[in-house]
Amino acid sequence: MADIRDLALHLNISTGTVSRALNNRPGVNAATRARVLEAAIELGYVANQSGRSLRRGATNTIGFLIETGSAANQESGDFFFILLDALHLYLAGKGFDLMILPCHSADDPAEFLGRLVARGLVDAVVITATRRHDRRIEMLTRSTLPFLTLGRSETPGAYPWIDMDFDGVARRSVAELVAQGHRRIALALPDNDVMLGYHYRRGYEAAMADAGLTLDPALIFRNPTSEAGGFALGRQLAQARPSAVMLCSEATTVGLYAGLQREGITPGPDLSIVTFRENPQLRFLSPAPATFRVDISAIGRLIGENVIALLSPDTRPEAARAEILVPLDYLPGASICPPR
Amino acid sequence: MADIRDLALHLNISTGTVSRALNNRPGVNAATRARVLEAAIELGYVANQSGRSLRRGATNTIGFLIETGSAANQESGDFFFILLDALHLYLAGKGFDLMILPCHSADDPAEFLGRLVARGLVDAVVITATRRHDRRIEMLTRSTLPFLTLGRSETPGAYPWIDMDFDGVARRSVAELVAQGHRRIALALPDNDVMLGYHYRRGYEAAMADAGLTLDPALIFRNPTSEAGGFALGRQLAQARPSAVMLCSEATTVGLYAGLQREGITPGPDLSIVTFRENPQLRFLSPAPATFRVDISAIGRLIGENVIALLSPDTRPEAARAEILVPLDYLPGASICPPR
DNA sequence: GGCGTCATCGCAAACGTTTACGAAGGCTTG
DNA sequence: CAAGCCTTCGTAAACGTTTGCGATGACGCC
Fold first, then answer.
1. In a shared domain, residues A210 and A193
2. Which of A244, A288, B123, B271 could form a disulfide with A272 if both were Cys (CB 3.0 to 4.6 A apart)?
3. How many angstroms separate the CA of residue A189 from the nearest CA in chain B?
4. B159 and B303 in one domain?
């Protein structure tokens, strides 16, 4: 309601001074500044965002791109919820807003982002669920909009990224299983080209080689990252008969437990299981699966810090180019037993 | 990049005409309009949002308030994901943007909303997880910002709402259980004052009365809406020994299955269970629980339609005041058996 | 006392868009 | 043919904010 002119009129000073006082700009008397701040709360004045954005050429808003539609739900819903909560909290402290931008997979991501950039809705954008070759990254590197990816990619260009160490998760998983005596270790992968699966597989292959185990292509499975996919995996494993299986999807794990039950296979004694990401839903499976835990809120804050660093002109460009790998902690579970 | 002035210069016409052409305003020659539209795509022109908002006094953005923090996760993450996807899709078709506004439960909701209104970030706001007495609704009824609630409330005032028919779910649940011969039917409620629990309880009480059954306060339980809460409920039920239990939380149901297993109680034969909302996670429990299904995407679209109706000046005010109760469909499950 | 410096503040021009208003010209109609 | 209307378009003033520039004193110093 209240204008900056109302405020200025009410204080008998110019709007310029009011603006400088509110924005902590130099050149305004301490007493006047105090009066302005006081009057601002009294009148309930908050700067209009459109006017400020227009003048400053910046919206103080960060976009967070979520791909919705088909293959989006690879991370369970609570992952993004926790992440967004932490990110929003951090950004709010810095005076930034957060705008979630659901990009439907049916849309052309390039066109979607093109409009986004041109409209000047956001000062920077975070993109998630990166692909090995990602058209969105291609598009953004050509534009002037700063961006940060949650997830690595092999798309050419120098851009900041934050990712979880799926490679390390796979290595540790193999190591834990091998320590128990497993040799026939199956790998469950998503059936799309999301980067997570790529790194998970690379870690698996490296760790298997380190352990002196030969890779059996018949033990590598690709299924939709869903409960149904996990259920189908149960049948496949009943055929292939590995002594252990590694998974990289929570939903798939839930489905696998049901699928194994139907096949008469007891998780743990009959088939060791290690998966991630740890969450309450998985913790109440029986036997509790061995998982990996990650501090999602920390990732949210990390994203916030680095996306702000991208925007602040005083940081050196090379310092702003984050390449951060977040580790996950191993959580033992009763789902890992020695092989029969 | 490209300005509306660039566009006008490029076409040798005035910016006013360009604006009118782009916005489908009357008073511009069809041929000129075509030329403008063509040049717009050629130069990649998209109207700057800040300038437009400032002039129009509207941002063409809908806010979606999500309460994060403690008691927020009553709905599992995928609920909001599906909802937001559908809502965003609908709004995009109407030229509106969607802004998710996480309001941390630690914040003062009134102050949060006050700033929001004053800043003019959004033209309307949708609030979720309504409480029986909701300070946010109080605040919004006093402001001029149009809003819509997902969930009913008893906060005074005439405001549009959309809600799911939890009352009907409870009635139907009781009816199904009574039809199987159950008389000692337990009720699991959330431990906070979210409206869902209130309506669920009312439906339960009414249906029990209709069936001629007396209410046993010892069979009504309040637990956190989480897996841990459901696990604890398992122990409580082992003490109280009802023949059936009704739940209104997905996470609680998952925890209950684990808790019952620990108590040596077999879901179905030993204790009938009916719960909602149906989702993949629940479908892979064994025995599959009887649940209720709701078309979440439809709710998303419904929200979109009604929030847009709130903003369009040509709709009659009384038509814009939606009070919509969305039904849920009963899905039988093996978790319902006759009592022993 | 004159001069330079500094702190403080007002003035006014932007930022990009929309829109009320008026002007010009073509057309119809009496 | 004049009057009036309609179509089409240009002009310019907003929307609310920030900020460069200049003005006004106050103060210190030679």
1. yes
2. A244
3. 19
4. yes
